[in-house]
Amino acid sequence: MGAPHNTKRYGETWNAMDLAVMQTEIEKFRDLVVVSGGWAWHFMSPPHIELKHAHDHKDADLFVHPNILWKMMDRMESEGYEKIWTRFDGVTENFVRYTKVVAGERPVKVIFDLFIEAVVSVETPVGIQVVEPETLLSFYRNKHSSVECFSVAIAKDLLGRGQNPVGHVKMADFTPWVSAAHDGRR
Q: Which CATH number fits domain 7-180: 3.40.1130, 3.30.200, 3.30.460, 3.40.50?
């Protein structure tokens, strides 16, 4: 989602089975991580249709406090995750990627991007810790690339109006964005 949006593809949805697998995997680590990026927007939003342009679900960006990193590594190893190389290895000490393939009706590759640092978090209505929304928005300058996703725009608007995006009904209403694209206004 780092590339400019192809508005002709607005309305496309994520595969529900892939999302269920990813969510289950994230929840296994809920006591050790603060969720960031697209999955943070997902968890702070009321139930909604999982549009590909609403927020990014292809990987999970997770913050792990340095003091409990060892717990995270132990659990990841016991769950079958393996570290993989990225272009950021050796460039930054506080980032590492782990993956695993979950077998099922069709295999699902789960990617966890770990940021080893403490962040300000809030609890979502579903009991998952996510990066506090204003802090999360600031990460779109250096940690996340999906700056055009609908959730980012909606959260910016809500915060600009003094409203909290966590659990806000507008965080699940992407109709105006899809309609604007189809009408040529976006």
A: 3.30.460
Pairing of strands 60-64, 108-116: parallel
Q: CA-CA distance, 89 to 91, in Å (whole number)? A: 5
Question: Greater confidence, 125 or 27?
Answer: 27
110, pLDDT greater than 80: yes
> Interior CA angle at 59 toward 53 and 63, to 5°?
115
| 86's tokens | 């990225």
Segment 31-55, tens digit of pLDDT: 999 999 889 988 988 887 777 655 5
**Residue ranges per domain, the chain?**
7-180
- The Cα–Cα gap between 108 and 137 comes to 28
pLDDT of residue 85: 86
The answer to whether 139 touches 113, Cβ cutoff 8 Å, is: no
Query: Any alpha helices (H) in the chain, and if so which ranges?
Result: 16-27, 37-44, 69-78, 133-138, 150-160, 175-182
